[in-house]
Amino acid sequence: MLPSENRLRRRQDFAIAVKRGRRAGRPLLVVHLRRDDELAGQVDGYSDSHPHVAEGTPSARAGFVVSKAVGPAVVRNLVKRRLRHLVRERLARLPAGSLIVVRALPPAGTASYLDLAHDLDAALKRLLRTDPTSPGGGSGR
Q1: pLDDT value at position 35?
Q2: Coiled-coil stretches, from where to where (predicted)?
Q3: Which end of the chain has less Cβ packing within 10 Å, N or C?
Q4: What's the mean pLDDT in 16-29?
Q5: Of the options 3.30.300.90, 3.40.720.10, 3.30.230.10, 3.30.1330.10, the CATH number for the domain spanning 4-43+58-129
Q6: Quick count: other Cβ atoms within 10 Å of Cβ 13?
Q7: Phi, psi of 50 (to 5 degrees)
Q8: What is the pTM (predicted TM-score) of this model?
Q9: Could you give the residue ranges of the DSSP H alpha helices within 1-141?
Q10: pLDDT (tens digit, 9 = 90+) per residue, 96-109?
Q11: Where are the domains of the chain?
Q12: For residues 44-59, average pLDDT
């Protein structure tokens, strides 16, 4: 389980990460990452006074989207638990204050834990290796 300070709960935070963050798609999931340095100075929803963030440097926060297309409730909950556990192990690699949303795609319902881990690592590697301030959308090449 993710600690309270590492959970995304507000719809507004999910929207910021998905609409304004960078995206990396894989066969099993799509990862949206909004770095804290991209959030600085924004007035449209991100403020320094989050109810679940302690004083000081905010920690990275994660949210999950697992739709009914993934499978019945038992399968969706299994996928969500697996993703939560995988992201918790990788939170230290994320920039402080960043928002991450992991959206499971339908094939995730039949995927193994290792397959989910592989896709999550590949997506995070792609998102974290590129510079968001570089011209041309931060392709990093």
Answers
A1: 86
A2: none
A3: C
A4: 94
A5: 3.30.230.10
A6: 20
A7: -85, 140
A8: 0.78
A9: 11-20, 36-39, 73-90, 113-129
A10: 889 999 999 999 99
A11: 4-43+58-129
A12: 54
